[in-house]
Amino acid sequence: MHLFATHRSLALPWFMFVLVFVLRSSSKVVFPRYAASCFYFLHIMNFLYVCVDFFSFFLSDQSRLWIWDS
């Protein structure tokens, strides 16, 4: 159950990665000046989100119980 919740929450960075890729490919005509900065900002936010999700799972009591029970 906890692993399902972790994998489900990790679907958001993949969705954001696809969104950023589409925006980067289509933003060369619309707003080329801010495309690179938005692209890097969203990737940094993706990385921070994955790190927070990873550490919050492994620092919780439920993950310790899951590790020791298995």
Q: What topology emerges from the helices and strands here?
A:
Blueprint: H1 2-9, H2 11-30, H3 32-58, H4 61-69
Helix pairs in contact: 2-3
Transmembrane segments: 12-31, 38-59
Keywords: Membrane, Transmembrane, Transmembrane helix
Summed up, the domain count is 1
Tally of extended strands? Answer: 0
Task: Count every helix, treating DSSP H or I runs of 4 or more residues as helices.
Answer: 4
Mean residue pLDDT: 65
Order of helices and strands: HHHH
* Major sheet attributes: none
Which runs of at least 5 residues are low in confidence (pLDDT < 50)? 1-5
Principal-axes geometry comes out as: elongated
**Relative strand content:** under 5%
Distance between the termini: 13 Å
**Helicity range of the residues?**
over 70%
Please identify the structural class as seen in this structure.
mainly alpha
Gyration radius (Cα, Å) is 17 Å
Transmembrane segments: 12-31, 38-59
Keywords: Membrane, Transmembrane, Transmembrane helix
